[in-house]
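User: I'm writing a tutorial on reading structure tokens. Could you give me a worked example: one chain, its sequence, then its tokens, then a sentence or two explaining what the tokens reveal?
Assistant: Sure. Here is the example chain.
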Amino acid sequence: MSVSLTLAHHPDPEVDTAHAYIACGVRAFEALGIRVDASWLDPKGPVDATIITGDNAHVWDEWTGWRTGTFVSGRQGERTVLKDARRLGGGVLLSPVALAELVDTDSDLPPATRSANARDGLFDALRTY
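And here are its predicted structure tokens:
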């Protein structure tokens, strides 16, 4: 399946650092046949992003990694609200393929967190995507 949408770049360079990582997540969903209806980069504090698949949303943030739940509201520049959210775990920077597989199989891994303002190389890792 080809990528059906383009993830818009964010005007804030720090937020936009996650652009390629989230775009890889979109492609990983689509490679498993999971239709992506929308995706966007959200505000910072923490930097986060959303991928919408049907009635569900999958939200990544730099402090807790991925969580998934029923989409309630949100759009670029506005925090996404989920109903019945659960963390997917697997680390703050779960590989896009692992993300898609967890969503496809309705599974999760042990959670991990990251401190605000951590100097742990996360943004350097995001730039590798």
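What the tokens reveal: Strands lie at 38-41, 48-53, 56-61, 65-75, 78-87. The longest strand covers residues 65-75.
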